[in-house]
Every structure is written in C-alpha cells, then in structure tokens.
Design goal:
By secondary structure, the chain is α+β, with helices and mostly antiparallel strands. The protein is built from 4 helices and 6 strands.
Length: 170
C-alpha cells in the first residue's frame, strides 16, 4: 500500500512537511488529530499520541501490519516505493518570511516599550530583566535578517527550477 492510499483511509489529514502528516486516530474518539503518520525508508510509520497501539489502528482500517511496508507483495507483484514529494520552495520561503516578520514585530514592540520606561523607577533586578528583554529584541532582529536571507535563497532556487523547466520545454 502506498502512503497516499493509506492516508485516503483516514479523516482530518493534514500535511506536516515532506513525508509527514497528522490525522484523527480511527481507533479512538478523536476530535483533533493525534495520529502522526510518516514515511520511513521502507514503511509507513504511525504514532498515536493518545497511546493507541499501532496494530489496533491498522486493524480498525481493515489492514494488517504487513500492509504498512512498501515492498510487501501485492496481487500485481511488488509495491513501488513512493516518490519523494517535491519541495515547494516558494511556500517554504513564505514561511521563513512569516517567521522573520514575527521576530521583527516582536522586537519593535519590545524596543518601543523599553524606550517609554523611565529606568529611575525600577530596582536593579527589574532593570536586569529589561536589559535582557532588549538584548533578546536585538537578537530577534538578527534572526529575522537570517530568516529573510534563507527565504531569498529559497526563492532563488524556485526561480532556477522554473527556468530549467522552461528551457527544457523550449
């Protein structure tokens, strides 16, 4: 059975990245996804955070443990190994940009709050905490620059991939 076929038997499937998903566990009454699904080298990996046993989960779906292996024989012969998903560099770059924006906004608010405070009103231990918060804000700005650089690199990869496909098609 392929991972896609296995996922089609579940409800509430959400992608968690390349080769990772979450879904509602079919073995127990599950309102939010507690079943983690992953692609191993030769099998589908399952883990229920409500501590349901994997054989029980598989049995409820009408499968056996052998069905989780990619190379288990089928009526037509051996099962093909799943193809790895293509990375969406643009979507990944967007996530990095969101992380950078979050850090920049947090740093901006901390710095604005620190500028509005009169340091004469606070004891030393509170001033130490304020200095630590401002230091973290500046570290967040540096991290935001790093994340933006990673996002730019990912967009460049996406552009290069697109250029390669356009040049191959021509």
């Amino acid at each position: 059975m392929s991972t896609h076929e296995f996922l089609s038997r579940l409800e509430g499937v959400r992608s968690g990245g390349v080769g990772k998903w979450s879904a509602r566990c079919p073995f127990h009454q599950d309102n939010s996804p507690s079943l983690s699904i992953g692609e191993g080298a030769d099998r589908i990996l399952l883990h229920c955070f409500a501590l349901c046993e994997t054989p029980d989960i598989v049995a409820v779906l009408g499968l056996t443990m052998a069905d989780l292996f990619f190379d288990a024989p089928t009526a037509q012969g051996h099962r093909p190994n799943p193809m790895p998903a293509r990375i969406d560099y643009v979507a990944l770059a967007f996530r990095y940009e969101l992380g950078a924006l979050d850090r920049r906004l947090r740093a901006k608010h901390v710095r604005q709050a620190a500028n509005a405070i009169s340091i004469n009103e606070f004891p030393d231990h509170d001033l130490d905490r304020l200095i630590d918060a401002v230091a973290c804000a500046y570290a967040d700005i540096e991290r935001a620059e790093l994340l933006e650089g990673v996002a730019d690199g990912l967009r460049a990869k996406a552009f290069a991939r697109k250029e390669r496909t356009v040049s191959h098609a021509a």
